[in-house]
Specification:
The protein is an all-alpha fold and 140 residues long. Helices cover 76% and strands 0% of the residues. The protein has one domain. InterPro entries: Essential_protein_Yae1_N, LTO1_adapter.
């Protein structure tokens, strides 16, 4: 009798071990699938945000270069030069140590301050109504 009870215990142990094995395999497979899908979604979102940010910084840089061709007070000239340097020093590679969000905020604040010095209120380009429907906000 003891021999058959050992067999039944072994059978139950095998069932439990099989369930654990399948749960572990399912978890590992789910983890891999989730990671692949998350990487793809993260790449697409990051790319879209990068394009939008590049467009914003390029626009500001163009304004700065144009304003540097005009006569301004020394204070405005310093602000223009500071803003230009901030944009030129903005990281162009995926450096994990770089504070991209902080750098963007400094650039935006300096840009606002420059427009206050210039006495200009409109810092955003005018967008037509057809373009407004397509615009998505990916700001930081």
């Amino acid at each position: 009798m003891s021999h058959s009870s050992d067999d039944i215990n072994d059978l139950f142990d095998d069932i439990v071990l099989t369930e654990e094995k399948h749960a572990r395999l399912g978890y590992n497979e789910g983890w891999s699938e989730g990671q692949a899908q998350g990487n793809s979604e993260g790449y697409k979102l990051g790319y879209a945000q990068g394009v939008q940010l590049g467009e914003e910084l390029g626009s500001i840089y163009g304004e700065v270069v144009a304003h540097q061709q005009l006569p301004h007070t020394d204070k405005v000239k310093r602000s223009l030069q500071q803003l230009r340097l901030l944009i030129e020093q903005f990281p162009r590679t995926n450096d994990e140590k770089a504070d991209i969000i902080g750098a963007v905020e400094v650039i935006r604040n300096t840009h606002r301050r420059l427009y206050a010095q210039l006495g200009t209120k409109n810092t955003k380009p005018i967008v037509s109504s057809s373009e407004k429907e397509e615009v998505k906000d990916y700001s930081f």
